[in-house]
Design goal:
Immunoglobulin-like, three-stranded antiparallel β-sheet, 1 helix
Length: about 130
């Protein structure tokens, strides 16, 4: 007896539709992956290159019903000047203070500064909103 083959002879009828679809999907997936990586790289570079001043709140302390002390650490280019905005909130989430702190010592790249923020009610938090260079 002879054995019967279930598949067609290789190369006789060209590629199957499944193989063509798989190839197209691989090409589309590779193109989308390259575009995605390019966009992520562009956003990352723009974020890093665009920041000449960055800061963070190291700690804060509520000293009274009308004052909060904030320890702010600023990192910047040596020639950069600008402002950092601090905000303080009450226990219910209402904003009770906002202060723009000038960051302008030329020649320094790292500044540690303790800032007193006057509040209109007792604050429970202090946070850095943003820093802008000009």
């Amino acid at each position: 007896m002879t054995a019967l083959r279930d598949d067609v002879p290789t190369g006789r009828y060209g590629r199957s539709a499944d193989e063509r679809a798989d190839r197209k999907l691989k090409i589309v997936g590779a193109c989308l992956g390259v575009v995605f990586l390019g966009v992520i790289g562009w956003f990352g570079y723009d974020y890093i290159a665009g920041q000449r001043i960055s800061a963070e709140v190291i700690k804060f302390g509520v000293t009274s019903d009308t004052e909060v002390q904030v320890h702010l650490e600023v990192r910047k280019d040596a020639d950069a000047t600008g402002t950092c905005t601090l905000r303080s909130r009450a226990e219910n989430g209402d904003e009770v203070a906002r202060l723009d702190v000038r960051v302008g010592q030329r020649g320094e790249t790292r500044i540690d500064q303790v800032v007193k923020v006057r509040t209109k009610a007792r604050a429970t938090s202090a946070e850095l909103v943003e820093c802008n260079a000009y």
